[in-house]
């Protein structure tokens, strides 16, 4: 399988693109490994002042790769996702999420940890874990500090699909724009961020994310263990296999 994550740096912006259309950018071992490497390169690039996280095609991320998760060996992947969220939260650079299509389950952890989230009106979200005998354990690290408690309870427990407008109300998304205006909105946000001094960005982001990082450090091991336990359970394995056996629409 070819490269699933691409990194491009231009005019002070590092753009990280998820490009695994065969599984709708599911968080496979390969994709997560490549994403961590791309983030490391973006962090090390002195010419990159801002990082944009986006997908190559419409779907941003469909969550965990259930074809891998069904074997129950998810402890390493859970820990990697904890570390990934902490890296972005503690970065000296602002991260901007560009969402042009659906985000599901684990993919919402990437959204939650970004500093600015822009999406189009058609984007939908869902924490599908509860319907598979799981819980949004690891991604709760970045989502619970961002979302309203009522919004989190509603969407985490039900697993229902919700809209971009609802995501704004819950604190998950910064701004919703028409699809034709998405790239322009991302460009403008990057331009606005680019006006700030690097030290100003770093120190302000540290101020904003102090409690988020403390939350990740306090509960990271606990939720990683919970996630591994749930993925290894008979109930979740049965639910995931049933989901994978459904005809693809």
Account of the 3D structure:
With 249 residues, the chain is of the alpha/beta class. The protein has one domain (5-180): Alpha-Beta Complex (2-enoyl-CoA Hydratase, Chain A, domain 1). Helices cover 49% and strands 16% of the residues. It contains eleven helices and nine strands. The chain has helices at 29-44, 66-69, 75-90, 107-113, 140-143, 149-158, 164-170, 182-194, 198-208, 210-231, 234-245, and strands spanning 5-10, 13-18, 50-55, 95-99, 103-104, 116-120, 124-126, 161-163, 175-177. The strands form two sheets. Strands 1-2-3-4-6-9 form a six-stranded mixed beta sheet, with helices on both faces. Helix 3 packs antiparallel against helix 10. The longest helix has 22 residues, at 210-231. The mean pLDDT is 95.
Reconstruct the topology from this structure.
Layout: E1 5-10, E2 13-18, H1 29-44, E3 50-55, H2 66-69, H3 75-90, E4 95-99, E5 103-104, H4 107-113, E6 116-120, E7 124-126, H5 140-143, H6 149-158, E8 161-163, H7 164-170, E9 175-177, H8 182-194, H9 198-208, H10 210-231, H11 234-245
Can you summarize this structure?
This protein has one domain: Alpha-Beta Complex (2-enoyl-CoA Hydratase, Chain A, domain 1), CATH 3.90.226.10.
Terminal-residue CA separation? 24 Å
Number of domains: 1
Oligomer: single chain
Largest sheet, strands/sense/barrel: 6 strands, mixed
Task: Tell me the name of the CATH homologous superfamily.
Answer: 2-enoyl-CoA Hydratase, Chain A, domain 1
Mean pLDDT figure: 95
Flag low-confidence runs: none
β-strand amount: 15-25%
**CATH top level label:** Alpha Beta
Structural class: alpha/beta
Annotation, overall tally of beta strands:
9
User: For the CA atoms, what is the radius of gyration?
Assistant: 17 Å
Spatial sequence of strands, sheet with the most strands: 1-2-3-4-6-9
The CATH topology assignment is 2-enoyl-CoA Hydratase, Chain A, domain 1
Which second-level CATH architecture applies? Alpha-Beta Complex
Shape: globular
In helices, the fraction of residues equals 40-55%
> How many helical stretches?
11
Query: Helix and strand succession?
Result: EEHEHHEEHEEHHEHEHHHH
């Amino acid at each position: 399988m070819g490269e699933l994550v691409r990194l491009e740096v231009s005019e002070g912006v590092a753009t990280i693109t998820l490009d695994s259309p065969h599984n709708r950018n599911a968080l496979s071992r390969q994709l997560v490994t490549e994403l961590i490497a791309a983030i490391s390169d973006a962090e090390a690039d002195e010419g990159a002042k801002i990082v944009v996280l986006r997908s190559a095609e419409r779907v941003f991320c469909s969550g965990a790769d259930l074809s891998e998760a069904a074997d129950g060996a998810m402890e390493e992947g859970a820990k990697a996702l904890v570390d990934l969220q902490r890296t972005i939260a503690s970065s000296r650079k602002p991260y901007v999420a560009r969402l042009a299509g659906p985000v599901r389950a684990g993919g919402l952890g990437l959204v939650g940890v970004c500093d600015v989230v822009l999406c189009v009106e058609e984007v939908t979200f869902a924490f599908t874990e509860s319907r598979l005998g799981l819980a949004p354990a690891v991604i709760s690290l970045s989502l619970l500090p961002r979302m309203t408690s009522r919004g989190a309870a509603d969407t985490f427990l039900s697993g229902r699909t919700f809209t971009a407008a609802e995501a704004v109300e819950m604190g998950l998304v910064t701004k919703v724009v028409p699809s034709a205006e998405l790239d322009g909105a991302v460009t403008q946000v990057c331009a606005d961020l680019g006006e700030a001094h690097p030290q100003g960005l770093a120190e302000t982001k540290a101020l904003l994310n102090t409690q988020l990082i403390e939350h990740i450090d306090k509960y990271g091991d606990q939720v990683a263990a919970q996630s591994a336990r749930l993925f290894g359970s008979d109930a979740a394995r049965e639910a995931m296999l049933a989901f994978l056996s459904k005809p693809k629409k």
